[in-house]
Design goal:
- Helix content is 36%, strand content 19%.
- The chain is α/β, with parallel strands linked by helices.
- The strands form 3 sheets. Strands 3-4-5-6-9-10-11-12-13-14 form a 10-stranded mixed sheet, covered by helices on one side. Strands 1-2 form a two-stranded parallel ribbon. A two-stranded antiparallel sheet has the order 7-8.
- Helix 12 links the parallel strand 13 and strand 14 (327-330).
């Protein structure tokens, strides 16, 4: 690995301090941030408003290095999935979902995932480590460069960013927040706070900290109407049950200027959480929560024990909620033909948790019986 400082790791405040430390003027920071993130430059010689002597100094001690592409798959519906290689040889997956003039980029925050949600393919891969700032914002940097410079094409290929890829963002808090800074920075990507969404399974301390540090849209992976079922689907619930989680969500919404409603994500699992009675229970649970509800058809993966709810049951579930006054959207499955749909991202994970190994032992025992 290189011993040079990767400038993708620095938000603008850190870039200012960096230039002060090397006895250069602070105004160089926004100049370099613009070259990197708005123009997609990774060659210091292209930074024409910076002196040759400073460019030479930067080349000696720093670099601009994002993830490298391994594969690119394009779905029949236009969804693009990239497998990206990290410096240590592991891989993550990033997905671009086009929809008219909107391009939503789904990015990862960890190599694998520390959580063990039973319906998620990513979770089955185990966990290795958190992504650095450069590896998180590097996915946006890569996608913008790959799709065409926003400055040369006159439009944005990436209009929205969602942290809904591999990993739990709030378990990589500091690096995620610095990456969010760059997404929102007018000298970098200049995205509206409403166009950047952080999705969490419910890390309560992280939610409480986020209220003081950032102000992006929030999504909550709920998937169940009570603690008993949620403990099974989202084991993190055993540590942060609904009665602790909901006050933290409301505190974030109360503290936010941009996000006045939380998006409730609810994966529809046949015979598990999709009955009319559970729809009514969900309505009671969310009656005091400012929210909209996304119903997400389950996307199957190998060896899963779950099935997708029928369209009839999904429609009935949604109708009950809408009659109770909720805004309900049934998410259209995108990119499932290239395994790029919700819950299908896997990457290449050197699993430190031994989760895959333990699961295989269980499968072997069942097959022996």
């Amino acid at each position: 690995m290189s011993d040079k400082l990767n400038l993708l790791d620095l938000n603008r405040d850190e870039m200012v301090r960096f230039f002060e430390d090397i006895e250069e003027k602070p105004f160089r920071a926004p100049q370099v941030v613009k070259w990197i993130h708005q123009f997609g430059v990774d060659n210091f010689d292209e930074m024409t408003n910076i002196s040759k002597s400073l460019r030479a100094k930067l080349k000696l001690t720093t670099e601009i290095k994002g993830p490298e592409i391994i594969t690119e798959q394009i779905s029949d519906d236009g969804t693009i999935k990239w497998a990206l290689r990290l410096e240590d040889g592991q891989a993550i997956e990033t997905v671009l979902i086009p929809d008219g003039e909107r391009g939503t980029l789904c990015i990862s925050s960890q190599v694998g995932c520390l959580l063990d949600c039973s319906f998620c393919s990513t979770a089955q891969q185990g966990f290795n480590r958190n992504l650095s700032v450069a590896e998180i914002i590097g996915q946006v940097w890569f996608a913008v460069r790959r799709l065409g410079s926003i400055r040369t094409t006159g439009n944005r290929s990436v209009t929205n960013v969602v942290l809904m890829g591999m990993g739990e963002p709030l378990l990589n808090f500091d690096n995620v927040v610095k990456a969010l800074d760059l997404m929102l920075d007018d000298f970098a990507y200049g995205l509206s706070k409403r166009r950047v969404t952080l999705s969490t399974s419910g890390v309560v301390p992280g939610l409480e900290k986020l209220a003081d540090r950032s102000d992006v849209a929030l999504a909550l992976s709920l998937h169940a109407t009570n603690n008993q079922l949620r403990n099974e689907l989202v084991p993190l619930n055993k540590k942060y049950p609904i009665e602790k989680l909901f006050p933290a969500v409301k505190h974030y919404l109360d503290s936010s200027k941009a996000s006045k409603k939380v998006t409730i994500e609810y994966v529809m699992l046949k015979g598990v959480n999709d009955t009319p009675a559970q729809a009514r229970e969900l309505a009671r649970l969310l009656k005091d929560m400012p929210c909209k509800i996304n119903l997400i058809p389950f996307n199957p993966f190998p060896k899963t024990r779950y099935e997708t709810s029928t369209q009839k049951d999904i429609d009935k579930f949604g109708d009950i909620l809408m009659k109770k006054g909720f805004v309900v959207v049934t998410r259209r499955t995108r990119g499932d033909d290239i395994d790029a749909a919700c819950g299908q991202l896997v990457g290449k994970v050197a699993d430190r948790t031994k989760r895959q190994e333990r699961r295989q032992r269980k499968i072997d025992v069942v097959e022996l019986k």
